[in-house]
Every structure is written in structure tokens, then in C-alpha cells.
């Protein structure tokens, strides 16, 4: 179990480093989207992984580059009893956009995205379905700037692979490694033995208060056939609302 934390942050480090190959400044991809998660690409990214030791970020090719990220965003997840679902994350590229209202409309205007990644770069919702039987299992969207992707994946991994309840997965303290700086951030309350296992493998660690905010829905046995297994949760790190109705 100690290796899971190490594997998680090493995989995150390589994913952030890989953005230098495929991501344009506006967040668009230079690579066919389906190829980004191909087995060949993932195997190549993890070829340098060592289970017993942290590989310094500077030794990766390409090395991760720090980008300006936008923490001002929100997300929502909606599903119905038939298994149709929407996961969405959106931003006005700044807190309250540009702070101006379009005359006569009451509409608050968004700030144009800047260069270097400030904008919707880290907003990537997720939906998991079994397309063979048309059943829904998981949907989530995350915000929180650079930590949004790792927050989302920590919840997805805990529920879909670790068999945790959705509530437990969202409430659990998180880790994050964005590559630049070469530092593992952890939320207060993260297991001290696991942190010790990280430092023993050569990781530098640093405490922080909040790593992302995740809204999610999870049906452990699939929807529509097993609606009783569905739960919806909002992240206690934020001020959201989760509700369900029969």
C-alpha cells in the first residue's frame, strides 16, 4: 500500500511533463486525443518509473515546465435514472471574470484567456460507462487550478479501483505532484507512514491546505439497473451542494 502513493505521484509527474509535447498555449492538443491515453504512450511515459526510488523531474524528457494556472472555476455533475450523465467544469478565466457587466443584460463578462496556460487548461471532466451494456458508473469534474487533475484522479481511483465509498474518496486527504517544482504536496491529515515511505524513496514533500475540489456521482453496480447503489457528493473543501431525488 505504501507504493500506491509513490506510483500516483510519479505518474502525475510524468503526465504533467508530457504536456510539453502535446499541449499548445491555449490548451489545445497537437496530438490526436485518443493517442494521449494509448497503451504505447503510457508505457513510454512510465518506462523510467522505479518502484523503489523517485526519478528527479529534471531527468525526464521533456522535463516538466511550470505554467500559469487558473484556480477560478466551478464544476457540476448531473445524471438521471436512465443513466444519462453530464460532467462539466467551466471558468471565466478569473474570479468574477473581468468584473464588468454587459450593459442592459446583467451578464458578467469573462476575462479572455492569457498566454502560458491561464484559462481552462486543467479543467478535464470524466465520465465512466460500460458501453457494451450501456450502464453508467462514474462522473466527476474538478477545479482548483493545477491540482484539479490529480484531485479528480484520486477520487476516481479510490472509488473505481480502491472500492471506497464516494464520500470516503472525496473526503480523503490528497497528494499532488505537478512536476515544477519537483515537490509532492500533501493535505493536512495525510497518513504519516505513507509520507515517510515517499521521503524514503527520495521525494521532497510540502504541506498545503487544499488540493482541488471535486463534484462526483458514483453508481457502484451500474445505472440504470441498480439505482440503489448510486451516491452523489460535493467536495467539503468548497461550498457546493449535492442532492438526489427518486
What is the overall silhouette? Answer: globular
The low-confidence runs, each spanning 5 or more residues with pLDDT under 50, are: none
Number of helices: 5
What's the SSE pattern? HHEEEEHHEEHEEE
Rg, alpha carbons: 19 Å
Q: Please state roughly what percent of the residues sit in beta strands, choosing from under 5%, 5-15%, 15-25%, 25-35%, 35-45% or over 45%.
A: 15-25%
Amount of helix: 10-25%
Task: Supply the helix-strand structural class.
Answer: alpha+beta
Q: What is the CA-CA span between the terminal residues?
A: 38 Å
Number of strands: 9
Kindly report the spatial arrangement of strands forming the biggest sheet: 3-4-8-9
Q: What integer is the average pLDDT?
A: 92
* Main sheet properties: 4 strands, antiparallel
Amino acid at each position: 500500500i505504501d507504493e500506491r502513493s509513490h506510483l500516483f505521484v510519479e505518474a502525475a509527474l510524468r503526465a504533467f511533463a508530457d504536456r510539453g509535447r502535446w499541449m499548445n498555449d491555449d490548451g489545445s492538443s497537437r496530438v490526436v486525443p485518443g493517442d494521449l491515453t494509448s497503451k504505447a504512450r503510457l508505457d513510454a511515459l512510465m518506462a523510467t518509473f522505479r518502484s523503489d526510488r523517485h526519478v528527479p523531474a529534471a531527468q525526464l524528457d521533456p522535463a516538466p515546465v511550470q505554467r500559469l494556472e487558473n484556480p477560478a472555476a466551478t464544476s457540476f455533475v448531473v445524471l438521471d435514472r436512465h443513466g444519462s450523465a453530464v460532467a462539466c467544469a467551466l471558468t471565466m478565466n478569473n474570479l468574477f471574470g473581468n468584473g464588468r457587466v454587459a450593459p442592459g443584460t446583467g451578464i458578467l463578462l469573462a476575462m479572455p484567456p492569457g498566454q502560458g496556460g491561464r484559462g481552462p487548461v486543467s479543467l478535464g471532466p470524466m465520465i465512466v460507462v460500460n458501453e457494451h451494456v450501456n450502464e453508467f458508473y462514474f462522473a466527476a469534474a474538478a477545479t482548483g487550478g493545477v491540482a484539479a487533475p490529480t484531485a479528480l484522479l484520486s477520487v476516481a481511483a479510490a472509488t473505481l479501483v480502491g472500492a471506497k465509498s464516494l464520500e470516503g474518496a472525496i473526503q480523503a486527504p490528497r497528494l499532488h505532484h505537478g512536476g515544477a517544482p519537483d515537490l509532492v504536496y500533501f493535505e493536512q491529515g495525510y497518513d504519516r507512514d505513507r509520507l515517510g515511505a515517499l521521503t524514503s524513496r527520495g521525494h521532497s514533500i510540502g504541506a498545503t491546505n487544499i488540493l482541488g475540489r471535486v463534484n462526483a456521482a458514483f453508481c457502484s453496480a451500474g445505472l440504470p439497473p441498480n439505482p440503489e447503489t448510486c451516491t452523489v457528493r460535493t467536495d467539503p473543501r468548497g461550498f457546493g451542494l449535492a442532492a438526489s431525488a427518486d
